[in-house]
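The material for today's practical consists of a large collection of protein records. A record pairs a protein's sequence with a compact description of its fold. Instead of coordinates, the fold is spelled out as a row of discrete tokens. We will come back to this pairing of sequence and fold again and again. Here is such a record, shown just as it appears in the course material.
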Amino acid sequence: MAVVGRIARPHGRRGEVVVNVETDFPEARFREGSELFVDRHGRVEPLTMTAVRFHRNRPILGFAGVETIEDAAQLVGHELRIPPGRLKPLPAGAFYRHDLVGCRVETGEGAVLGTVDGVEGTADVSRLVVASSRGEVLIPLVAEICVTIDIAEKRIVIDPPEGLLDLNHKGTMKNTKS
């Protein structure tokens, strides 16, 4: 399932929660009567939204059966998901994050860097988190660097500027404390 938000914290005493948005379509995803899914205790459970309002571009949601602050606290940290069949088609050149995870990342010469482990940032400024043999590498998700993205083949070809891979390689930092 595709992640559309993460429950950040309870809001008030009546079981509402504040959500960190992970979708470009928050008004479409978060509507009264709509159903989202959460994985709790190894089981996928539906949650029906009974109240929705936005504060500072973040939704505050109420769910059926979540009536108290204690109920809401049990949801903190959980991802809110929807089935892939409910996703809107994207324009050419746009991708859902879950489609990028698992893609092999390689250079134009065919050297394999690693596999996309995640995508960080917002729709405007995103970066690929690539698990490589040297550790984690961050690659800006821009057309000038990610020159080919082939979701069907689970392959991303990059043309990184000189030094980018070393600069964004989290494992290259040395401890300089004395």
